[in-house]
Amino acid sequence: MTKRILFYIDLFTLHFGLAHYIQKNTDYEIYGMIDTTNKPKNFFLNQNIVTFKNQWFYHDFIDITIPADFEYLKKFSEKYGIDIEKLIKNDRHFNHYNELYTFTENEKKSIVAQECKLYEKIICESQANYLIITQPSLRHSYLLYELCKTLGVIPLVINPSLLGYQTYASSKINKLDSYDTKAIRIEEKSFEELRNILKQFNVNAQIVDYIDKFGKSKLSLIKSAYEFLFNNSNSNIKTHYTYFGRTKNKVLLYSIKNLFKKSLRKNFINKNFQKNIVDDNFIYFPLQVEPDRNLLLGAPDYADQLNSITQIVKSLPDGYKLYVKEHPGQNRTWRDISYYKKILKLNNVKLIHPSFPSEKIYKKCSLVITAVGTSGFEALFYGIPVIVFGDVLYSNISSVTKMNSFDELTSLIQNSLNQKPEPDELNLLLKLLEINSIDFDLFGYYTIQAHEFFHDSHLIDVKISEQKMKNFLDTNKAHFEKIGNYLIKKTY
After folding, report:
1. b/e per residue, 423-432, with b = 16+ CB within 10 A?
2. What residue ranges in 267-319 does DSSP mark as E strands?
3. Fold classification of 4-160+462-490 (topology level)
C-alpha cells in the first residue's frame, strides 16, 4: 500500500523542500496542511513544484465570527485526552504577550473549535501514515502533532539536537524514540574529556551565533519597513487571527516604543546585574526566553518564571543562594524593568548578567534547576545534578529529576544535592545522539531562508515566485537530500 505523508507547511521552507525531495524519490502520496500569510499563499496555490494529493489552507477554515462550539470542545478534550483549556491559556497570541489585540474567551474557543474540526477532517481525508513537522513552536501546530499521535499518525518531528549543528527526527518532541544502550560500547571518558566534546558541538554557541546573525541587517530592516508601510495591503489583519490588531500605525508605534524600552532595559541590566560569583553554595536557575515553546508547550504548568523563582527560594536549603541568569536570547526586547526589580527584591537571589559565561557558573554551582532548557544538559558535563520541569532529551540520566509539583521541590532539592553523577551515563547518551542524528545546522538554515525570502525575518508576508523557489531548492539541494533520505529511512 502506498504510504501517505502529511506535511505541516508554514513559512519554514524546509518542509516544502522536503516534500519536493520525497515526492521525487518515492511513490508516496503527499498532503499539505498549509499555514501561511496571504502573499505567500498565492505561491502555494499556483506552484507546480510539489503535487499535493490534497491541501488545506489553515486560515481558510477559521472564521472568528462563528460562535464557539463549547460542547464540541469539551467532547474533543475528553475523547483525545488533550487539555484544550491549558493550550488556550498558554497560546502566545491569546495571552499577555500579545500587546496589539485582546481576544475574548468566545473568540479563542471559536478559533480552537474550528481548528480541531479541521484537523479531524484532514486526518480522516488523508488517512496519513506520517506527519512531517519541525518542533512545533505555536499552539495550533502543537495541537496537530498531539492529535496525530492520538489517531495513529506517526509524527516525524525534526528536532535540533543538544549537540550543536546536529539534527534528529523522532516521533516525539525533545525525545529519542529509543534509549536502549545495551548494544552500545563506549570508551570510558572523564567529565573533562566529555566537556571537550561539548565545546566542539556547543549548542549554546550555535544559538548565540544564530542570534548574532539573525535579523541584524539594518538595510534589510529599512527595506522591510518600507515594504510593509508603502507596498503592503496588510490584508492579513482581516483574514488571519494571528495578525489581528497589527495595523500599520500600531506596528510602527509598537516598534518605536520597543526600541526605546529595550535601550532602557539594557542599561538597567548593565547597572544592576552581577558579573561575578561570590558565593560558595548556590543553585542555578537560568531564565528561558519568552515567549517560547520551551515554556508555553514544553513546561506549560510552569510558564510563570517569576513564580518559579519564588517557589525555589522558599525551598532553598540553609546557607544556599539562588543565582538567576537572564537568557542572551531575550535581547530582542529584554524583560520589563519591573520584572527584574521583583527578582532583585527576593532574599537570597542574585541576578547574573546575560553575558556572564555559563561554564563559570557550572564550575561552582551545586545544582541546576531548569524548565526544559539546554542548561540542564550542559550542567551534566560538570557533574552537576539537575531538576527539570518538563520532558527533556536527557531525562533518562539518573541525576536528572523531573518535578511534578512545587510541593515536592524541597525534598527534590535535598535529594539532588546528595547525588554524585558519574560520566558513563552521559557518555552513553552522547553516543545515542551520534547514532540517531545527522549533520545539519537547523538554526543556520533558518538564517539562510530568512535572508533569501523574508528580509532577514523582518517581514514574512512577501511574494514568492516559483522561479525563486526553484533556484533556492537547487542551491540547497544537498540539505534536502541529506534530511530527505534520513526521513525516508524512518518510514521503512
Report:
1. bebbbbbbeb
2. 282-286
3. Rossmann fold (3.40.50)
Four-residue CA torsion sign, 322, 265, 103, 295: negative
Q: DSSP of 392-446, one letter per residue?
A: -TTTTSTTEEE-S-GGGHHHHHHHHHT----HHHHHHHHHHHHHHEEE--HHHHH
pTM above 0.70, yes or no: yes
Query: Cis (ω within 30 of 0) for the bond into 136?
Result: no
Q: How far is the C-alpha of 478 from the C-alpha of 486, rounded, in Å?
A: 12
Q: Counting Cβ atoms within 10 Å, is residue 3 exposed (0-12), middle (13-18) or buried (19+)?
A: middle
- Compute the distance between CA of residue 492 and CA of residue 488 in angstroms, rounded to an integer: 7
> Residues 203-247: pLDDT tens digits?
666 566 655 555 555 555 555 554 555 556 668 898 999 999 999
Cα 456 to Cα 11, 218, 223, 250, 403, distances in angstroms = 13, 10, 10, 22, 39
Going by C-beta distance under 8 Å and a sequence separation of 6 or more, which residues neighbour residue 365?
282, 283, 284, 323, 379, 384
Q: Which of 423, 344, 343 is nearest to 383 (CA)?
A: 423
Helices (H) and strands (E) in the chain, counts: 21, 13
Topology, domain 195-433: Rossmann fold (3.40.50)
Question: 3-state class of 34 per DSSP?
Answer: strand
CA dihedral (209, 214, 218, 219) positive or negative: positive
Residue 313 DSSP SS3: helix
- Amino acid identity at 176: L
Domain range list for the chain: 4-160+462-490, 195-433
Query: Which tens digit of pLDDT belongs to each residue from 23-67?
Result: 999 999 999 999 999 999 999 999 999 999 999 999 999 999 999
